[in-house]
């Protein structure tokens, strides 16, 4: 490629990274441009190079110059790598401060791509002696943690309930579109591939912060929602509840063609089978599902299949058909967007008796309901999925071990 053309391409990529809050990656792109001359920084190149040494970098001003809405500005953004914040030889690992949103470099043995990165939000009220709930948030294709945090508003929602929020970052070296590989057999089982990597990130957060192990949750959008369903199936001993927005059931596909087919019309009968690698005999975590009936990317039939898979797994865990009470509620968002909410509960009158909720969002496409316009793939007019997910999550906890 001609050097001038390559320079423009790489500098354009660096500008995009800065606008997304990825200052270290942008710096590496610039260094590569000026130093290498012919290097590439496209989708086929590793997206997570070796971390740069030096002090932590405050990215809050970078976000604001790029036009990020004020609703995330109260979180101080820093970038931390093992060299920037070395852990002491003795004593607890270094923890990110309260009120921060930190990009963390993370390496996992056996991962296909190292190092990985994730962003961690620590609420202002966090203290070392109070275990906090933790929400694992999995972005959709073409998104990144900063974009996803902005669009969902999860950090703002988590602050008053004092919850940690973990946003793993899928490098383009793992998937050209930044998608979680929910459709690949090697990424669908406990103890291997991306499920093992994501749970390792959860445990990495637990090593530095006081986390209530009975209140760890996972949610995702689209491909991230499909991966959240996989994690719920494979790690019912880790996640107390699961949220899937515009996603698919675990095992809906096992290759790219199957994934495209399932996205278009739903999984074929029998396509979703229980993992042979799951040795944990536990009921499935409670599940909340959001899906737009006008979704042209992932058909809304997938939401019905998620609920059916949930009830089938619950029946299998209980040795028969569980008796559930079904209640249907119709309502509207403050902006007048309608929805139908179907609640499935075991006999009882407490929120913890609910095993599944299905929110069918009327006249809504492939977007996070009630999200902020500053993020991608959001529909601010719809019901607030973030608030409803948190409400659902915090009503459930894992049994005491």
How would you characterize the overall build of this protein?
The protein is of the alpha/beta class. The protein has two domains: 1-42; 56-318 and 359-394, Rossmann fold (3-Layer(aba) Sandwich). The chain has helices spanning 3-19, 23-36, 60-65, 145-152, 154-158, 193-208, 223-234, 256-265, 301-317, 385-394; strands at residues 76-80, 100-106, 116-122, 132-138, 164-169, 211-221, 241-245, 287-292, 325-332, 338-345, 354-361, 368-369, 378-379. The strands form two sheets. The chain has an eleven-stranded mixed sheet with strand order 1-2-3-5-4-6-7-8-11-10-9, with helices on both faces. Strands 12-13 form a two-stranded parallel ribbon.
Decide which structural class fits the backbone: alpha/beta
CATH topology name of the largest domain: Rossmann fold
Shape call: globular
Instruction: Give the CATH H-level superfamily of the largest domain.
Output: Alpha/Beta hydrolase fold, catalytic domain
Distance between the termini: 59 Å
Measured on Cα atoms, how large is the radius of gyration? 21 Å
Low-confidence stretches: 1-8, 30-91
Percentage of β-strand residues: 15-25%
Count of DSSP-assigned helices: 10
CATH architecture of the largest domain, by name, is 3-Layer(aba) Sandwich
Largest sheet: 11 strands, mixed
Mean pLDDT equals 81
Features of the shown structure:
401 residues, 29% helix, disordered N terminus, 2 domains, Rossmann fold, 13 strands, two-stranded parallel sheet, alpha/beta, 11-stranded mixed sheet, 10 helices
